[in-house]
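Margin note from the TA: students keep mixing up input and output lines. Inputs are the sequences; the output is the structure of the whole complex. Example:
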Amino acid sequence: MGEFLRVALAVAAKDLRVEHRSKTALVSAIAFAALVLVIFNFARDAAALSREALAPSVLWITFSFSGVIALNRSFALERENAALDGLLLAPVSRSALFFGKYLANLAFVFTVEAVALPLFVLFFGVDLTGVVGGIVLTAILATLGFVAVGTVFAAMTVRTRFAELMLPLLVLPFLLPPVIGAVQVTARLLAGRPLGEIAGWLRILGFYDLVFITLCLLLFPPLMDE
Amino acid sequence: MPSPAEAPLLETQNLERRFGAARALRGVSLSVRAGECHLVVGPNGAGKTTLLRILAGLARPTSGSVTRSDGRRSIGLLSHQSQLYGDLTAVENLAFAGRLYGVAEPTEQARARLASVGLAERADEPVRALSRGMVQRVAIARALLHGPRVLLLDEPFTGLDSQSSELTLRLLAAEQAAGRALVLVTHDAQEAWELATHAHLLVRGAWAFSGPREASLETFLRRCREATHG
Amino acid sequence: MSDALAARRATRRGLYVTTLGLLGLAGVYVLALRYTPMERFQGLPQKIFYVHVPAAWCALLAFSLVGIASALFLWLRDPRLDLFAESAAEVGLVFSVVMLTTGPLWGKPVWNTWWTWDARLTFTLILFFLFLGYRALRGALQDPDERARFSAVVGIMGLVLVPFVHLTVYLFRTLHPQPIVLKPSAPSLPDEMLRTLLVSVVVYTVLLLGFLMTRYGLGTQARLKGGDHAG
């Protein structure tokens, strides 16, 4: 267990250090999220749909699409100079390598979400008093799951010619359960519904995370095994 | 000279590698002991890179066995590509590798290794800024960092200027003298002939011939020509 | 017997089973149109039900086969399992398209709407996209071993996803009941309709088997010809 975490943290630190050098990916992802929010503001019939009614959907589409876009870089940097071989050569568990990548991706996507959420509040005039904690918890739960799936798929699609297209095509069906759950919870929180109503959805999100993180940890080694 | 009774550092038996109908390797066996340098030559597509990847543990054979004296830890690989992160400095790259391999004091070790390949002054520059020859040296330093018993090299002299080639040859000779074993894939046997203790020709996935090298390079090259055109 | 000959025989066996299935399908049409009572409120279009529902069942069955073959492949690394998964995915794609096109054909005349987000249609739509993604990934990878490994992981993950999609879509729908609900499997089906449905399901399964065998045989022939290209 100690070795597993040591390796994972080393890989995550390396990923974040590489990102820190250029910073372009993070800035671009944040800019993308902001632009999506802006477009949503205009892409609706103001008379028919209030901002409040659309708010949960807007938030979650922004989060999930920005998240998926951000995942490509995760393995693109390993592709250059065949750095991935260097990782796979080491006498370490491949699951630990995956976990390190996963942690770095989580840090990345959480950062994007942390900037996008205040922007969302600003642009959509949504009142989050009292429910910020709930929204953040939902965001964490939903993100944990889809980043795991996205990390595995990014490892695959980076080997294809149209990685930027292939990754969303493969990942979006997997976003359906977390997004449905997250939107339901967010809508109820914004409407001031009691916690009892959302507990069930949060449990589903949590279960999804558990199942898919485990599955990804198990599938990454055979995936990498030529 | 190591005695023949010493256990091999790396051994394979009857390696087969195929997927469906296509066969990349057929019945390949190899035994590598300390201080030996095994030259592997062959035409393009013979399966040399596949063999190296299996020896390194990056690929699994369809059947047959690979035994390493100390698991993947005993192997170092120098391939076509540097396996380095261009945005990180040489020290950062090596320190990361050190952490992966559980090397004590990775950063200090990294600097020491880089100094031993003559790159102490450029150690804190991003790898992206280094020339091909220097990148090769960083890659060698990285491969040797964790003290592997066996070094696998895929065309280590390709694309290098003569100074870098010289340096590489000296580094490898030093490693060999220190008891490491080398498996060197090359299309030009001449470059590494002086290091070689064994020479093998791989044609269409199988050994055309394999064993201790003969005295003369010309004889070997003639045998290769006969085997590939015969 | 040579591999090529064996592959040709396998394809031919598949074609026999497919022909059997197609004949059965003709029989189902006759059964549905002549020997099954007309539904009182929906009339003739309701009979699409006997084609629509079994197609959904076959799409799901094919998807499960992809998942199981994928898991077995990762464990045993037998290329034939990869070919089986590839074949099942193609067949499943066909059945899901059948289901998704017969849905609107049924919905429009009866409920005046081309599409509803009912649980079964939505679910099959997701399956359709998973099949599509699986095939797209395979098409984008050149190395046969890599293609097999990667699509196997997608197959397994897709199969695990299915219960979650089913659950969340179902919950979503119970909270947002659509004004029009396709209720194909109401438990109150009269006996003759149930009988026709079951016969249709059996025939469709035979068709699935036939398509699968034929596709597998054709795939084996293609691979033997040395064309281990993306398929």
